[in-house]
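In response to reviewer comment 3 from the previous cycle, which asked for concrete evidence that the modeling workflow produces usable outputs, we include below a single protein chain processed end to end. The sequence was submitted unchanged, and the resulting structure tokens are shown without manual editing.
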Amino acid sequence: MTFFDRRDLGLLLLRLGAGGVLAAHGTQKLFGWFGGGGIEGTGQFMESVGYRPGKASATAAGLAETGGGTLLALGLATPAAGAAAAGAMAGAAAVHAPNGFFNMSGGYEYAATLGLAATGLAVTGPGRLSLDHATGHVLDRGWMVPLALCAAAAGTAAVVGARVRHLQRQAENQGAEQDTLFDEATPS
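The workflow returned the following structure tokens.
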């Protein structure tokens, strides 16, 4: 007979809470549920904050949040699920970082909290009240944790880096346009 302890119950609650929020957040992007923009609206937003192409970025973020969140809630493929969700939240945090930490100022507090919860679950594991436990942890091996987290970090770094480079080029182009307009307005 298997006994469950408070650690297992705590991990279940954390998985259901963080995973449920992430999944709901992702369905806003993918399907427009819960007042979200769907792929079209989220894609336009992604373009406006420098993630290009917008629709592909919206799809990737929506899948990472919805899929990662759902799998976290179920406790299935926990290392990959946590890493995917953490990567999506790191991308979101990059958008909000210029506004500081706190969410009330548009900061990255919300994204950081969900990302850290997802990472913590990837590292700790889902506990015994999970599908990973029920399936003998075939998708939750110790070696999968660093592999999943490193892959998510590399992918996130590439995507956020491309965004930063795009925003820098955009700022340089706007500066050059303003210089040209100023030069044209100056009498000879």
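The CA atoms of residues 79 and 144 lie 6 Å apart. We consider this sufficient to address the reviewer's concern, and the full set will be provided in the supplementary archive.
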